[in-house]
Amino acid sequence: MPLVTRDAAAIAAIEKLRFGPFAARSGNGRHLVADDGRRVIDFSASWGAASLGHGHPALVEAVGRAVATMPGASLLSLINEPAVALAEKLLSITPGGGDRRVWFGHSGSDANETVVRAVEAATGKRRVIAFVGAYHGGTALSMSVSGHTAQTHSPPRAGLFLLPYPDPYRPHFPGAVGEAALAQLDYLLATVCPPSDTAAVIVEAIQADGGLLVPPPGFLPALAERCRLHGILLVCDEVKVGLGRTGLLHAFQAESLTPDLISFGKGLGGGLPLSAVVGPAAILDHRTAFAMQTLCGNPVSCSAGRAVLDTIAAEGLVENAAARGLELANGLRRLADRHEAIGDIRGRGLAVGVELVENRESRAPAGSLCQAVVYRSWELGLLLFYVGARSNVLEITPALTITTAEIEEGLAVLDLALQDASSGRVDAAAVAAYAGW
Ligand SMILES: Cc1ncc(COP(=O)(O)O)c(/C=N/[C@@H]2CCCCNC2=O)c1O
């Protein structure tokens, strides 16, 4: 029986974000073998989590060794060296002064949940500022400080204020997008969100699920400066765009700022469940037994994380992301010469968004076309998904190990998918069967 059929009968719909009958039997490098045996180039890396691709030898060896020796399965009450070594590594590669600590979890959601709980508990402040369009997680608290349009089923938490994230392609308000957002922040801080009761601002250096939005130069440093002036902690959510993906080790390094706390996830584990928070001891040591999950800091996931960081360094994957990202952007611009539906190409390194529009003057979002492109791409041998407040932004976040040839391979398939989708040669009813987001 096909995997798609078995999935429908066994897996809960509440955890499905499906764009088509996409099912894989195996993976190797940057390719997947679909359930029907087809070879598919993976431009998603499972929403950026498979940072080393599939089956990287370094990961296989590290995880195999760790699971065979297992110094326990939890850091909560038994110290293990892989967790301590990974924490030491994370402290050494993240900017920040003073006495700092590392918390380990399993997902970007629990990392951001822990950040919010810890900054509020340690400072005694009750308010948090985040941005419309941000996806900080799928757990109750991480969701409640998110601003993604796909999460309106869950109300925001008390004390949350959402600002517009600067989107140069779609300005929300008159004037320069960065200044408009900062003016709204100033107004909030001067009125209903007093700094004396505001624990943190949480922000992505590139807003990923909101549509790979890249803020204008100067916005993030200006935001950081306001946080500093007002004594508000600055949290950078690096879960999707961190750890080399943008062609820098940290996405926030594109501008001169040093966050107070940083959350990591997805690519940190290379496909294994692993997240981390790096921040001041004053916050992360404020008490014991505060943010615990049994498998936090388990040696297998932490060994995977160490192998990921070591491989990123040993194979020059930050530099590869920068170089391949330029090739990807140039290739997409060539596609834009042939496809009017491509309204905007943006991002950094291997964190790239392609916004599809009905026409370039109106910039009306082309959500249906985007869904059809993703569906057709799979049929033709390319896996990618879409994001954005209007579900019209193709997200390209391949493994950091991707090669020039594989970039070209994926772009060639995307070209055909755009042609077919734009010409109405995709079965609309088949696409409509998948809700996407
Ligand atoms: C910037 C950022 N921060 C935190 C998260 C939550 O990470 P987890 O899904 O590992 O809990 C995410 C997760 N993003 C979603 C995961 C659900 C499917 C949609 N695509 C994503 O990348 C994220 O992008």
UniProtKB/TrEMBL annotation:
<keyword id="KW-0663">Pyridoxal phosphate</keyword>
<dbReference type="InterPro" id="IPR015422">
    <property type="entry name" value="PyrdxlP-dep_Trfase_small"/>
</dbReference>
<comment type="similarity">
    <text>Belongs to the class-III pyridoxal-phosphate-dependent aminotransferase family.</text>
</comment>
<dbReference type="GO" id="GO:0034386">
    <property type="term" value="F:4-aminobutyrate:2-oxoglutarate transaminase activity"/>
</dbReference>
<dbReference type="Pfam" id="PF00202">
    <property type="entry name" value="Aminotran_3"/>
</dbReference>
<dbReference type="InterPro" id="IPR049704">
    <property type="entry name" value="Aminotrans_3_PPA_site"/>
</dbReference>
<dbReference type="InterPro" id="IPR015424">
    <property type="entry name" value="PyrdxlP-dep_Trfase"/>
</dbReference>
<keyword id="KW-0032">Aminotransferase</keyword>
<protein>
    <submittedName>
        <fullName>4-aminobutyrate aminotransferase</fullName>
        <ecNumber>2.6.1.19</ecNumber>
    </submittedName>
</protein>
<keyword id="KW-0808">Transferase</keyword>
<dbReference type="InterPro" id="IPR005814">
    <property type="entry name" value="Aminotrans_3"/>
</dbReference>
<dbReference type="InterPro" id="IPR015421">
    <property type="entry name" value="PyrdxlP-dep_Trfase_major"/>
</dbReference>
